[in-house]
């Protein structure tokens, strides 16, 4: 099946109801200037899928298939989160619901800071990385989902910084820039972020 066959269908469903994520994707898709309308699943009254996979890849595919099945259209889904090596990769796929309630950014950030406080040694940076996996399905039963992965490495701050972004952005420190992810503009972030990297790979696939 052609990489670009879904482009002839006119509409691509974005399998997300996360406002922050949708805003980032809308900006990224606008930059791609695709000859297709990208519609967030909420506008089609599609609720979130049950994410019961054990990896970012599995959950991204689950979400894409769910949106495609209900809409009858090709769909693209993102599964993303922050992985901290010193926590054996946690919060990982549970990033959005780390503190219990899905999407409670403040509680999630607070829990991560509390857990790292016990492990943090004076003057020692704690490494972290944002991960994004995009899954594109032509239809709900597509046997060959396309996968695009981005990894953004940085450090985890002791205190939140910045007002932009969402999720763990205020805790994600980029030492080479001297900024947190939440102190960057959307344009700056999209150029180098995990989501921006995955979208660049997606864009490159369209040019093959």
TrEMBL record:
Source organism per entry reads Acinetobacter johnsonii
Query: Which top EC class is given?
Result: hydrolase
Keywords, A to Z? Hydrolase, Magnesium, Metal-binding, Nucleotide metabolism, Nucleotide-binding
Looking up Pfam families in the UniProt record yields: Ham1p_like (PF01725)
- What is the name listed in the Swiss-Prot or TrEMBL entry for this protein? dITP/XTP pyrophosphatase
**CC cofactor:** Mg(2+)
Traced from the root, the source organism's taxonomic lineage reads: Bacteria, Pseudomonadati, Pseudomonadota, Gammaproteobacteria, Moraxellales
Reported EC number(s) for this entry are 3.6.1.66
Q: Name one GO molecular function term.
A: dITP diphosphatase activity
GO biological process assignments:
nucleotide metabolic process; purine nucleoside triphosphate catabolic process
The similarity comment for this entry is: Belongs to the HAM1 NTPase family.
| Subunit structure comment from the entry | Homodimer.
Tell me if Hydrolase is a UniProt keyword of this record: yes
Catalytic reaction(s) noted: XTP + H2O = XMP + diphosphate + H(+); dITP + H2O = dIMP + diphosphate + H(+); ITP + H2O = IMP + diphosphate + H(+)
